[in-house]
Write a structure and sequence with these properties.
single chain; 155 residues; elongated
Length: 155
């Protein structure tokens, strides 16, 4: 088996991890927020942060490295049509993801504080949650379009 096969396999697996972990953690975070159960929200918030550091962050790096290496092997300049759009959308998803992580840390800390105080979640928590949600929608939309570009490779 050649290097291209392994790079492409790693690229596909890392995209699956990136998308699957993101969608899975977002689903559980969104669902638990609907319960209003501060203890449950705290636990899920902590696990979402952990999952992002263990799975999402490494997958982001692997995606970038393998993507550039694959383009190199195929002789595609990074400014080539669909590839340039995919890279731009990848950057857009990253621009959304960085504040998402900051918001997740903030929501985790606010949930910890509310649980410690025996209080309800603050308005600030819910503002973070709404912002987190919409940034996630933008990032996931970008990733879905990237998948389409990678499969279709339009001229």
């Amino acid at each position: 088996m050649n290097a291209y096969f392994w790079l492409k396999t790693i690229h596909i697996i890392s995209s699956t991890i990136l998308f699957g972990t993101g969608l899975g953690t977002a689903f559980f975070k969104w669902i638990v927020d609907r319960t209003g159960n501060v203890a449950a929200i705290r636990v899920v918030s902590e696990k979402v942060v952990l999952a992002d550091w263990l799975f999402t962050s490494p997958a982001i790096v692997v995606q970038a490295v393998t993507g550039v290496l694959i383009a190199n092997q195929l002789g595609y300049p990074l400014t080539h049509g669909w590839l340039a759009y995919a890279i731009g959308l990848y950057c857009l998803a990253g621009i959304c993801w960085i504040p998402v992580v900051v918001l997740q840390l903030g929501m985790r800390d606010l949930a910890r504080q509310a649980e410690r105080d025996g209080a309800a979640l603050t308005q600030r928590y819910w503002i973070y949650a709404r912002t987190w949600f919409w940034l996630g929608v933008a990032a996931f939309t970008a990733v879905m379009i990237i998948f389409c570009l990678m499969v279709m490779k339009p001229g």
